[in-house]
Structure formats: C-alpha cells, structure tokens
Amino acid sequence: MFTQDFKEQPYWWDRSAPPTEQDTELPKKVDVLIIGAGYTGLHAAIQTARGSRNTLVIDAEQAGWGCSTRNGGQVSTSIKPSFSELEKKYGKDMALAIHTEGKNSLQFTGDFIREEGLDCSYDVVGRFHAAHNVAQYEKLARAVEQQVSGLENHAYMIPRTDQRSELGTDVYFGGAIFPKHASVDPAAYHKGLLNTALSAGAVIISYCAAENINRDKNGFSVKTSKGIVLADKVIIATNGYTGSLTPQLQRRVIPIGSYVIATEPVDKELMDQLMPKNRIVSDTRKVVYYYRPSPDRSRIIFGGRVSLRESNPRISAPKLHQSLRQIFPQLEHTKISHSWMGFVAFTFDSLMHVGAEDGLHYAMGYCGSGVGMAGYLGMRMGQQVLGLEQGQTPFNDIKFQTRPLYTGKPWFLAPSLMYYRFIDSLNI
Ligand SMILES: Cc1cc2nc3c(=O)[nH]c(=O)nc-3n(C[C@H](O)[C@H](O)[C@H](O)COP(=O)(O)OP(=O)(O)OC[C@H]3O[C@@H](n4cnc5c(N)ncnc54)[C@H](O)[C@@H]3O)c2cc1C
To answer: What global pTM score does this model have?
Structure first.
C-alpha cells in the first residue's frame, strides 16, 4: 500500500519544508512575546511588528511544525454551531455577529494572500459538502433554502442524479455547493506568513520552548529553553498543542488527532473523473472525512479521524486508505506516498475563543477549522495588543468554558467517537 519513497510527514513539506534551526540570539527584552509560530502567532506578529512593537515569536519545534503546515488546506467560514443553535444560547444579534465573523475570516484570508502576493496556490474552488444519507441531504437542502438574511452564502444543492458532475462516486446522496470556500497549500501559506512577519521586523526563533511565565508589576518574565525573556505583553498561540505552560487554557481545549494521507500521482483522466471541478470536499458524517486534489491535481489528499486513540501515521494510513477506496473504488491499486497527523483544539461549546486571562492574551479552539479563522483571530488579537478598537471580536465576549475535573487529558474521546460512529451508521 505504501510507495517505495513513502514519508511519515506532510506532503506539503516536499514543497515547503519547515525552516531549519538558525542561530538567532534570544533577545533579552521585547514589547511582545508570542508563543507558537503557526497562523495565529504569525498573524498577531505581523500586526504588532507593523505597529512598531518589538516582537519576538518562539516555537518549541520548528516554526510551523504544528497544525499550520499539516492541515488539509480547506478554507471555510469555520463556525460549527448553526445560527439557530447560537440564537437560542446568545440571542439573534450575537448569533449574527458570530456567523459574520466566519464570513470575515474567509474574506480576510483571500484578501491578505492576494494583497501580500503570497505564493501558496490559493484558489476559490468551492466546497462540495456531501450528504451521507437522504435525511442529511434534506437537512442540508432546508438550511440552503432558509438562509438567514445578511448571512447568505450563495450555496446551492446538487441532487444525487447530478452528483458525478462534482465527484466521481455514487456513495453519497447528493450535497451542497458552497462556492466561496477555497483551497490553499497550507505550508506554502505558512512560509509566506513567516517571510511577511520577518519583513515586518519580527524575530522568530525555533526550538525555543516557553517553560514558565511569571508576571510582576513590570510585565512578564518568561523562562524558555534558550534563556529568559522579559516582555510587556505575552500572546499564547499554541492551540492544539496548549500544555502545562498555561494550565488555565489547557483545561479549556480538547486536543484531538486528525489524520491525512496523500496518494501517489494518479492519471489525469482518472483525476478528471474523480474530482472534475477541483472542489474541496467534506461530508455530513459526525466523524467527518475531508479531501481534495493536490494543487497540481496529481494526487488526492484525504483526511479524517480514524482512530479511537491517538496513533502513529503508519497505523492510521491503512484505515484512511480503506475509507478512500470505499468512496473511490477506482483507487483500489493506488498507493500512499505520505501519511501524517496533527492535534486540533476542540472546545466545550464548539466555538473559538479570544481573550486575556491574567494579562496573557490568547486565541485558540478552532475546532478543526482554523486555516482561515486562526489567521483572522491572530490578526485581531495583534490589534487588541496594540490597543486598537477594531481588534475586538464577538469571541471576546463568550465565556471560555471548561468542565469539572478536566485538566487537558480527554479521557472521554474514545467513548464519544464510538458513539458518533454509531450515530453515523444509523443513517439519521
Ligand atoms: C491533520 C489536520 C488537518 C486540518 N485540516 C484543516 C482544514 O482543511 N481546514 C481548516 O480550516 N483547518 C484544518 N485544520 C486545523 C488548522 O490547521 C488549525 O486550526 C490551525 O493551523 C491552528 O493554527 P495555530 O497557529 O493556532 O496553531 P498551530 O499551527 O498548531 O501552532 C501551535 C504551535 O505552538 C507551539 N507550541 C506549543 N507549546 C509551546 C511552548 N510551550 N513553547 C513554544 N511553542 C509552543 C507548537 O510547537 C506549534 O507549532 C487541520 C488540522 C490538522 C492537524
């Protein structure tokens, strides 16, 4: 099943390898210290450095080692709860404000990449969101028909009879097209952000783990694996890798493994049959699959949550391969060239959160949809640190919940995954 040159690392790293260790000296004092060099941290850094704040970004591994160079490269509006769910909880205005932020994050990402001229294969290809049964098709159709005024997304339905014009399979029951969703090469996007942050004057240091944060009346003293840094402001941008450095945040996010494989190159005619419109694809299962062609349309990048417990990419690959072949039997003999995983951060209310706790700023909890939102909220958080009014987001106003006895080790994941698989199998 594996090609001879199979790699246990993201396909994206073939084009954009994470930067190797440089010998940049750790500054002794900065205005802003950002912990985590993914989309959140780098977008925050671009704001603060351009706002003339002396900015340092550190990462425990290579800059970009986390989700930001491992994801599926699907860019959406990112908000998981429906408008009506949010309206029940927070009222109509807040529900509108949250969903509008979703649209803003998508718009911002495309605009930023275009304006900065980042070379990262960003393309507004549209999403095919496939229904895995008839009931889900009807539910999707109702949602598309009853769009909330002000939140229209130009979505439309594709019935099962026309499905092959979107996707070369009969396993689904039709689906919805979201024409504004986009695809990107995630690691090339990250590389572009890294260069933009450096040009703005930020210092970025890899293999520099923050180990301890102390606050006193003058600001913060942060102990890192490369020495101590004093900082006026600290931003936590660690998302699914949030650890005991910030226990108050660790107990609010639930790290969940997401797994991806890339196939070996397939024939052009076959790719044209399987993914004729180059869409990004997801489905209505609770344990979702997400997939797309590579930017050059030579391979399929196929992701999902396949394991009850976290496992290594050699073990997850055959499971993903099996699911891929169930959707596309045409790929029976196609091998896997890459397999990898990363940790996303879910939250107890399925929303992302931004705020300041004990004087530390943070943005995290993108629930597996952070390609657009992480950068957008990183940017907003950078503006908040600069004291700018426009930095405020509705996510600042929502309580970041935890649960009693939860300290950051999600013991409840395996049973809930089994439960969700059971629900998926019921066809409701
Ligand atoms: C397999 C996979 C597929 C995905 N697919 C999609 C997709 O298609 N679409 C989508 O919208 N989203 C997707 N996501 C989610 C998306 O990638 C993330 O939401 C987003 O990249 C989060 O960015 P971030 O900068 O907040 O965190 P990350 O990019 O994860 O960066 C956090 C960084 O913090 C560092 N760190 C942690 N602790 C410390 C410390 N103490 N000191 C220093 N550094 C520290 C880590 O080393 C890490 O590099 C996917 C995620 C995964 C794993």
So the answer is: 0.96
